[in-house]
Specification:
The chain has about 650 residues and is of the alpha/beta class. The protein has two domains: about 10-60 and about 85-270, Phosphoenolpyruvate Carboxykinase, domain 1 (3-Layer(aba) Sandwich); about 275-345 and about 440-605, Phosphoenolpyruvate Carboxykinase, domain 3 (Alpha-Beta Complex), CATH 3.90.228. It has 17 helices and 32 strands. A hairpin with a 5-residue loop joins strand 15 and strand 16. The model has no long low-confidence stretch (mean pLDDT about 95). The structure holds 3-[(carboxymethyl)sulfanyl]pyridine-2-carboxylic acid (O2Y) and manganese (II) ion. Manganese (II) ion binds near residues 277, 299 and 324.
Length: about 650
């Protein structure tokens, strides 16, 4: 039994509530009063607890176990079709002043704000007051103590998530370190440790509104949600997140995008470090030299594949520290160190195959929660691009929407293709299951970063790889990133969109201040990582990819290694940065052959347009908040392009 401080409310409860310190107890009490859960469950993180929870979800029809012998402790979940991806338009950062979140340019009336959306704390409180009261009536409120980063690491941070979704508990258990050891670290120091307050509910349509109640009846009974009223609020100054109405992915696993990127980027600015949308990988060459690399690509652009790739070049080896988020901080020796704050993968299933990511294919057979993939009569899972040899003719496949005899090529009455799996369907697997997880993935001090790679999905203009001239130029390259869009967000319609630092949906504060923070990191005595830009997605006349990608990307890593070792013979200056010489990247043994001239071409006409697009985006969004260091970079690029054009 849990009882409020003044003893006026008692709720049946499971777990040892005496472990909670005063601050956590106050947070819990505030939301028990508001949400009126029927029961409380303080999660201890044990295997036994997880087993019971999965069994409970199985009984309620929310999850199905994969019964095929090839899978151990794997589960398949279908969400309501209205709740399948992050919702950027419903995601807001709430602070006292708009300028803390939105840069000057984007505050101009008539200029669309393309980065973080703002609402005042008071306005948001009122919106939530309309949604939260009694939202957990009849449900259990789970209390999840979790650590982002290895428990006790000086780089780690703690959160407490309240949620009414057992699916969220099971997924947070994979994605973060949860349970009693975390709660105990809150109380070990002289001062109680700070924690981020994370409040989540799948929502409850207003019972007083018959239309809403009617709509709710149409939804998948095993997946309660309130899609019309979804709202995901971040209060960085209060260190609080409140998420209403969605049980899916980044909307509900609050340790991930909400905490580890939006709130953490704010904390990082205050404390002098970075929270970035980056994978972390260890690369070793045949001579045994090791380099750790962090890479930022927009959502669903292949970070997971790169982070655990199998290099095609003999003697090269890749190990994975993380595939999505990096927290980076300079140590006392001036080395940039990184931890992966997460403990699992929440990877896109469609397109994952033995060819694109053999290590992911191996690891998803254990302790994995699949969401919105297809389920088969063999008791396993299926998704588009998984296995060209899969016998679809003789296997009954149940699509993610529950179509019982799904076949390829099925269409709706409107001619729309019906897919087996949702394009944003996911596997959720512990890091420890990855066959190439780096032994240092749990290291408290983090791994030393030598290179940062930016990238995007561009069919033209951006060459296969190039290097920045220096740190400020590298920061500019991050700010100039653009990429073709994917299905990771439900409400994004542009084809090619600006996505600076791959952080567009994840900035926790003013983009101008963010850029200045990056520029300020360069200080005497610090070993600044080299910055590169890659584009594996160049296409030819028939829309074919010009570069084989996947394991062959080791060839790009080889060039990066040479540059890190100071080899000036493999690079030449160009208006956009240091490009590989034509023989700089090993490619003559590739079959089919590749057109290196084309892959490394800087087309001046296209680049004049690119420069125009970058300048107008940065000037438009930043206005007076554009740091002088970035203005200088814009001018220099223009000048270099003009000089090269006039020489031709
Ligand atoms: O909430 C979702 O729909 C998933 S979004 C996601 C999941 C894992 C890693 N990255 C992302 C992303 O959008 O960048
Ligand atoms: Mn991501």
């Amino acid at each position: 039994m849990w009882t409020s401080k003044d003893k006026s409310i008692s709720v049946e409860g499971k777990g040892d509530f005496s472990l909670l310190n005063a601050a956590v107890s106050d947070f819990l009490e505030q939301y028990v009063r508001t949400c009126s859960p029927s029961r409380l469950h303080l999660c201890d993180g044990s295997d036994e607890e997880n087993k019971k929870l999965c069994e409970l979800m199985r009984e309620s029809g929310m999850v199905r176990p994969l019964t095929s012998k090839e899978y151990t402790n794997c589960w398949s979940v279908r969400t309501d079709p209205t709740d399948v991806a992050r919702l950027e338009s419903k995601t807001l950062i709430c602070t006292p002043k708009e300028e803390q979140v939105v840069a000057e340019g984007a505050r101009h009336p008539g200029t669309p704000n393309m980065l973080g959306k703002w609402m005042s704390e008071e306005q948001m409180d009122a919106q939530m007051k309309d949604r939260l009261p009694r939202c957990m009536k009849g449900r259990v409120m789970y209390i999840i103590p979790f650590s982002m980063g290895p428990v006790g690491s000086p780089l780690a941070k703690i959160g407490i998530q309240l949620t009414d979704s057992p699916y969220v508990v099971a997924s947070m258990r994979v994605m973060t370190r949860i349970g009693t050891p975390v709660i105990k670290t809150l109380n070990t120091g002289a001062e109680p440790t700070e924690f981020v307050r994370c409040m989540h509910t799948v929502g409850r349509p207003d019972p007083a509104d018959p239309a809403e109640v009617q709509k709710a009846k149409m939804r998948l009974p095993t997946w309660p949600c309130d899609p019309e009223r979804v709202l995901i609020a971040h209060y960085p100054m209060r260190r609080e997140i409140v998420s209403y109405g969605s049980g899916y992915g980044g909307n509900s696993l609050l340790g991930k995008k909400c905490f580890a990127l939006r709130i953490a980027s704010w904390i990082g600015k205050e404390e002098g470090w970075l929270a970035e949308h980056m994978l972390i990988m260890r690369v070793q060459n045949p001579e045994g030299d090791v380099r750790y690399v962090a890479a930022a690509f927009p959502s669903a652009c292949g970070k997971t594949n790169l982070a655990m790739m199998e290099p095609s070049l003999p003697g090269w080896d890749v190990k994975c520290v993380g595939d999505d988020i990096a927290w980076l901080k300079f140590d006392n020796e001036g080395r940039l160190r990184a931890i992966n704050p997460e403990n699992g993968f929440f990877g896109v299933a469609p397109g994952t195959s033995l060819k694109t990511n053999p290590n992911a294919m191996e690891m998803v057979h254990r302790n994995t929660i699949f969401t919105n993939v297809a389920y088969t009569e063999r008791g396993d899972v299926y998704w588009e691009g998984m296995d060209p040899t899969y016998d679809l003719n003789n296997t009954k496949v149940i699509s993610w929407r529950g179509i019982p005899h799904w076949k390829p090529g099925m269409c709706t009455m409107d001619g729309e293709v019906i897919t087996a799996a949702h394009p944003n369907s996911r596997f959720c697997t512990p890091l420890s299951e990855c066959p190439v997880v780096d032994p240092l993935y749990n290291s408290a001090e983090g791994v030393p970063i030598d290179a940062i790679i930016f990238g995007g999905r561009r069919p033209d203009t951006i060459p296969l790889v190039f290097e920045s001239f220096n740190w400020p130029h590298g920061v500019f390259l991050g700010s100039a990133m653009r990429s073709e869009t994917t299905k990771a967000a439900a409400d994004v319609t542009e084809k090619l969109r600006h996505d600076p630092f791959a952080m567009r949906p994840f900035f926790g504060y003013n983009f101008g201040e963010y850029l200045q923070h990056w520029l300020n990191l360069e200080k005497p005595g610090r070993k600044m990582p080299s910055i590169f830009h890659v584009n594996w997605f160049l296409r030819g006349e028939q829309n074919e990819f010009l570069w084989p990608g996947f394991g062959e990307n080791a060839r790009i890593l080889e060039w990066i290694f040479k540059r890190l070792n100071g080899d000036s013979s493999v690079a030449r200056a160009s208006p956009i940065g240091m490009l590989p010489t034509n023989s700089g990247i090993r490619s003559n043994d590739l079959s089919p052959s590749v057109d290196m001239d084309r892959l490394l071409n800087v087309d001046h006409k296209l680049w004049l347009k690119e420069e125009e697009a970058i300048r107008s985006f940065l000037e438009g969004q930043l206005g007076k908040d554009c740091p002088a260091g970035i203005v200088e970079q814009i001018h220099s690029l223009r000048e270099r392009l003009a000089n090269t054009c006039s020489e031709e």
